[in-house]
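Retry 2 of 3 after timeout on previous attempt. Resubmitting structure tokens to design endpoint.
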């Protein structure tokens, strides 16, 4: 019995030591992101996760004295992941909406955006009017998806096909399986700038603002919000804007102006 007890004690100690080591190595913050969402979060040629929001999250974590782990998560899965606690923060150019504020919390916004229509240069489509009866691609559960559903009848759009991110949508656009793709304009302008076979042909005013998303009422949101206020005051976010988009952030935008945390109406 003594030997068995000693063996059990030694065995359990070893297990606890391994678990303890794994816990010690775990990052303080798990951040869900739809990797491939250029220029917000994507992999560079070396496989490293980079982007505007990646830089911002890393800086926020640094100011909070925390480490970060990025977890590749389809856009539509970010909401359940943050609500269930599988991730602490969700990013991926997520638009703040009143509907979303019913079930999650956002820090103050840091980027103003609209939607846009992208087509192939060879299609001859010059704008939304040219999409009558055509197949349009959107990102599942995105504001572009919601906008298309609300405008489908008035624009007389054809089939709507849903994608889990920009890359697969662009593959189908180039292959002719969809005639146009509606998504966030900054991502599309960044994507097509070195691709003459693709064109952003119309800006769709939606007045969106992007931010980091948290579980409803998570105190971490306020901590992050306070850091974002500091970073705006230092011009850090405006500098990120210039780095990733090659243009100065306008002084009236949420990349510069300190705003309150959004609340549900």
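Retry 2 succeeded. Sequence:
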């Amino acid at each position: 019995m003594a030997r068995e007890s000693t063996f059990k004690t030694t065995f359990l100690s070893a297990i606890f030591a391994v678990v303890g080591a794994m816990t010690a190595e775990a990052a303080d913050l798990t951040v869900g992101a739809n990797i491939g969402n250029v220029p917000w979060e994507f992999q560079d040629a070396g496989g490293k996760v980079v982007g505007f929001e990646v830089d911002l999250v890393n800086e926020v974590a640094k100011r909070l004295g925390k480490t970060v782990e990025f977890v590749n998560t389809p856009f539509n899965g970010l909401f359940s992941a943050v609500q269930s606690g599988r991730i602490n923060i969700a990013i991926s150019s997520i638009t703040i909406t009143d509907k979303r504020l019913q079930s999650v919390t956002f820090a103050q916004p840091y980027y103003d955006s609209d939607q846009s229509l992208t087509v192939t240069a060879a299609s001859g489509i010059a704008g939304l009017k040219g999409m009558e009866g055509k197949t349009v691609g959107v990102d599942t559960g995105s504001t572009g998806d919601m906008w298309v559903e609300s405008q489908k009848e008035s624009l007389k759009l054809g089939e709507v096909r849903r994608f889990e991110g920009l890359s697969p949508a662009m593959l189908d656009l180039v292959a002719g399986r969809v005639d146009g793709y509606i998504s966030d304009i900054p991502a599309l302008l960044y994507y097509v700038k070195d691709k003459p076979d693709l064109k952003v042909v119309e800006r769709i005013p939606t007045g969106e603002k992007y931010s980091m998303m948290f579980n409803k009422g998570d105190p971490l949101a306020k901590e992050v919000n306070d850091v974002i206020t500091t970073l705006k005051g230092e011009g850090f976010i405006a500098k990120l804007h210039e780095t990733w988009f090659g243009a100065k952030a306008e002084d009236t935008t949420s990349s510069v102006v300190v705003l309150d945390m959004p609340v549900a109406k």
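Attempt log closed. The domain at 113-207 is CATH 3.40.190.10 (D-Maltodextrin-Binding Protein; domain 2).
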